[in-house]
endopeptidase La (Alginatibacterium sediminis), 653 residues
Amino acid sequence: MTDSTEGLSLVKELQLSQLQFDYMLPDFPISNTASWAQINPIASSAMERFVASEGPSIMLLQSPSFLDVRSFLVDQLPEHFETSAMVFLPSPWSSQTHCIFELDAPNDTRLINDLKQLFETQATQLETIFSTLNTDKVYSQHAALIDYFKSLSDYLWQHPQSKQTCIKSLQSLSQSSSSPIIDIASRTALFGSCEYNRQSQLVRLRSGALHAQKQQVIALQLESLLSHPELWLELKAVVQSKKVQWQSAARFNESPIPDLPDLDCKIKIVIYADAELIHGLHEMDPSAGAIFNDICELKSQMPRNQDSTTAYLSQLNYLLTTQDLPVLNTEAAKYAIERSTRLAEHRDYLSLYFSSMLRVFRLHQQQFNSAYSFAQLHQCQSLLQAQIGAARHYSNQGFVEKFVHLEVKGKCVAQINGLSVLEHEGVGLSFGEPMRITASVHNGDGEVIDIERKAELGGNIHAKSMMIIQNFINQLLASDHQLPFSSSIVFEQSYSDIDGDSASLAGLLVLLSALSRIEIHQSLAVTGAIDQSGSVLAVGGINEKIEGYYDVCKSLGSHTKQGVVIPATNVQQLCLRPDIVDAIGLGEFHIYPVNYLSEAIALFFDCPLSSPDHENTVLAAIVKRIEQLNNDDKDDDFGWLSRIKDLFSQKTN
């Protein structure tokens, strides 16, 4: 065992100073410019290299589901995505070939109109248009186009009957200028569309994002692609062949389409999604990973220091201005830092879950329409949580009305208060809830029975933690033989699945109480994992667990002497509500961080696990009881007979 002789006096209560924040606030005013390069520097550098690279390529960008990937992409990609207009004309010299001309935006719309007029006016007006083209600097780079139209003019002058044929053969791609991010991937958005006018018998092609003949970048949501799997397969074919076929635009269209040549694919593509969707892509198409030239991941949080805090607040200011909300003042900056560390579940990190933060600031403007106040922002946060807090309300009500039994005062044998986190899908609600854990011991073969597992309510990790408890007991008692007792552990009034190892410390403590018959404090609740050497290990959801127990104690009218025992390694993750921090400062609520089982035993049992003289210890009480069980079995060849006598004696008394 590790440090098994440590006593109660060595377990130090967490002090208020350990919960207070160093906000690391920069000088005000704070800029309101996007700071993704500082917030996510690795991903930002990778994106910069990708955009600057030569030739067509495709990147897979993985991001947490809550992260505003769109904001990152808007900051990293070129401001406008421009598809150049293209004109397809039949060659005057051959009916089997076509001439293709790319026209640069933004002047191509004017040229398209000129071309339409070219075919709608008399042939005698062609020379006027050509004269304009020759003298206009806008079109000076289109020398090949001008030469072609001069030849076409001569041809039409000599063969006026071909004029109508040229009109029917004209297909133009409209120029567009828009965001590089395609929110909804559709056939039209990617591959364009084909329209056929039966009256004029004119075929018109509209460009898709893949038709761009410049090295530009587009971003696609994988979720949108997976909703139409055929689009993914066609996009994959384009990436692999580096060719865009015009037939794709009319695949499900009955419009006639001329035999146009394929275009080289020059576009760069960023496909972004969370890990779950990317896993779904590989499930659907196991070879999908081979087409990505680059893979990058956006982090969900950033280390907290002076420079990163400045960058974080600058980014938040930028997002506030995009939603017409006031920029941060000192009060709002303090709230933002505190809330961000809470979302990151670590005092030394800042969460990039900006959308959650913005909801609070929007509500503040609706409710108060005044300068930001730290207290008012917390009120808004509480109001938003109350809007989705029905399950939390009913949970507390169950304890108040005694539907769920919980002792938060006095002492009791073989009963302890554990801490859990309940997660509800949908709106993403999670909150802490205490749970009563009990144990019983009887003559047997040394087995620790996990009732949750027997009832098929316990998961694999939970089952593993119960095995660790059993192995620890065997090691503690240093027994080379089968122990003369069996025991059971149960999570009382639990009606849903349980998993995880965060209750293993509580399970071991309550089992030691049942074995030793020593009462343990009910005013304390405990969370923590345990290993076979007795070290207490960190757990998740520590803030929710502490707040859940505090709220229940307060609802029961008992919150002045209660407290929680937590792993010492979780202290750096504490970002508690202001009311709980105040209660700790007033000595009305207590937090005890522990590193070893022996420290937790000293708190709950008021005596050590063991001592050099082996007197008044938990281990001594357990050994004494085992000896009693062994003696009972020796005196009675039928051990069950002595147990019946004991039971009868208890009932008679």
Q: What stands out?
A: Residues 474 and 483 are 8 Å apart (CA to CA).
